[in-house]
Amino acid sequence: MQALLRVSKTIDQLNERISKFALWGVLLAVAICSTNAILRKLFSSSEFFQKNSSVMFELQFFLFSCIFLFGAAYTLRRDEHVRIDVISSRYSERAQVKLDIIGFLFFMLPICLLVFYYSLSFFAQSFTNGEHSGDSGLLLWPFKLLMPLGYFFLILQGISELIKRVGYMKGLVTFHEFRKAGHSPDDEVREYLEATNQTRQD
Predict the structure, then answer these.
(1) Total-model pTM
(2) Which of 181, 187, 156 is nearest to 168 (CA)?
């Protein structure tokens, strides 16, 4: 079990690093979107804008896809995905972990594996045909590669979370290492304010 927990830690660290890459995607998407808007307002009739507006417009959507797909595993790692706790929050920690294990084994991982499998052929067909966008002329296979990559990292994180739940059942992992147990929105706001005040004092 200790070896599996080390694997889980490695996966967590990997997705932490990938999330930083996704953050740069946010900055780049904002820069492209802002540039496109400025050019549209000031130089809509210019040759440069006419030639590159479609490229910038499509790049925005591709970058948003990158942010979403590469951020999904990190969000799972941080237990930040939308969770309906109306019923499960009334259960004991152990019962909640059992529900998590069932959810990972029978819902999350099988669905992600199916999407990953079919997205590989989606990417392979685009790569083989050298597919380009009809509007901008952008090569599309690098962007279609984002889907299997994103789901691959999400599957890895799902395995990591499953390992941690099993570790909890064996008494090797604490509940708070993988779940934000008992955190209401007020608790999170209070924690944020406390962290901000601490940063200012430092």
Answers:
(1) 0.79
(2) 181
